[in-house]
């Protein structure tokens, strides 16, 4: 913590609390820092401000950082030709992609599918390595993963892939454990070449549970520190990062004018990815997964109709494809249903 412009008293209290880096400070709330250090609220405000300033000086997120991921031309296949065509070949390697959608839309299904796809060699759309899957809210869906593995049809030039041995699962119940996971354990896996894909499911869960609306400034600090960590990992190890996100409801209001004046009434509602503009500015590609009315069939299987849409990406047009979730995974439909 010597790099922070603080009094010796505050630096000494931070050292006693084992807050040895900027990241250690930014991963705790103000109340937790007070409890750990015994400092006053005004001292903690100075500590957080100094840490945020140091973080912004160290690795700012620039346009070059955001766009470097797709300039190399490398992609990670989604395991489906229809969806790969929508995304110009798959997820950009070396960038942060967000996949947002309502519960049941198929986001986790796609995340699991990518954990298998990444293990294929490059000439089959993979990266020849494993994945780390970070769960922040629900238990890891092991049963569904085993079902997907059982449905894999290996190309003739691949003799064996032990899919489960190359998927590393992390459960993080709070911001501190998430920060520890991303700053310590994940870099070790990447440096050893054991993984080439990082999945966070979901990015909004901990930020929603640990911060109240009045804590927006502190939440933004944590959010920027978190996104900076993801970008640094992605750049250093040339690794795609997928962040699964929740959504919030956006209601359009209209004033109804009648003989008796009435107040605003909801005209329509839609959903948008959670965490607002601060988070939106940190991702290279934003995708949305929707669950639609109606079903489609495939042999003896039936599935609710889905749609995967490109909301924004520097190298893609806004477009979408209908899809369905089968036992073998998420598959785009050749013709819109």
From TrEMBL:
One of its GO terms (molecular function) is four-way junction DNA binding. It is found in: Nucleus. Residues 72-247 form the RecA family profile domain. This is DNA repair protein XRCC3. Keywords: ATP-binding, DNA damage, DNA recombination, DNA repair, DNA-binding, Nucleotide-binding, Nucleus. One of its GO terms (biological process) is resolution of mitotic recombination intermediates. PANTHER family: DNA REPAIR PROTEIN XRCC3 (PTHR46487). Belongs to the RecA family. RAD51 subfamily. Pfam families: HHH_XRCC3_RpoA, Rad51. It comes from Scomber scombrus (Atlantic mackerel). Gene3D superfamilies: 5' to 3' exonuclease, C-terminal subdomain, P-loop containing nucleotide triphosphate hydrolases. GO terms for cellular component: Rad51C-XRCC3 complex; replication fork.
């Amino acid at each position: 913590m010597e790099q922070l412009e603080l009094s010796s008293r505050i630096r000494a209290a931070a050292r006693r609390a084992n807050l040895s880096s900027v990241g250690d400070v930014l991963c705790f709330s103000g109340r937790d820092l007070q409890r750990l250090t015994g400092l006053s609220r005004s001292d903690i405000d100075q500590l957080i401000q100094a840490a945020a300033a140091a973080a912004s000086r160290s690795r700012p997120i620039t346009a070059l950082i955001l766009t470097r991921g797709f300039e190399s031309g490398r992609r990670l296949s989604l395991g489906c030709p229809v969806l790969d065509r929508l995304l110009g070949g798959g997820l950009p390697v070396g960038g942060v992609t967000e996949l947002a959608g309502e519960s049941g839309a198929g986001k986790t299904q796609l995340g699991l599918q990518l954990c298998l796809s990444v293990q294929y060699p490059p000439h089959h759309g993979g990266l020849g390595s494993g994945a780390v899957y970070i769960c922040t809210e629900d238990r890891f869906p092991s049963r569904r993963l085993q079902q997907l593995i059982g449905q894999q049809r290996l190309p003739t030039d691949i003799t064996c892939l032990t899919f489960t041995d190359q998927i590393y699962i992390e459960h993080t119940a709070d911001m501190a454990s998430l920060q520890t996971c991303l700053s310590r354990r994940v870099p070790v896996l990447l440096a050893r070449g054991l993984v080439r894909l990082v999945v966070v499911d979901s990015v909004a869960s901990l930020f929603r549970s640990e911060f109240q609306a009045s804590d927006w400034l502190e939440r933004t600090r944590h959010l920027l520190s978190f996104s900076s960590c993801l970008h640094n990992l992605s750049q250093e190890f040339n690794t795609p990062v997928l962040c699964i996100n929740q959504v919030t409801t956006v209601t359009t209001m209209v004033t109804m004018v009648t003989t008796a004046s009435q107040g605003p009434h909801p005209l329509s509602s839609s959903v948008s990815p959670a965490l607002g503009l601060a988070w939106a500015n940190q991702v290279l590609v934003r995708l949305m997964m929707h669950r639609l009315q109606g079903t489609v069939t495939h042999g003896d299987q039936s599935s609710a109709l889905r749609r995967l849409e490109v909301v924004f990406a520097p190298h893609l047009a806004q477009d979408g494809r209908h899809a369905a979730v089968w036992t073998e995974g998420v598959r785009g439909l050749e013709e819109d249903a």
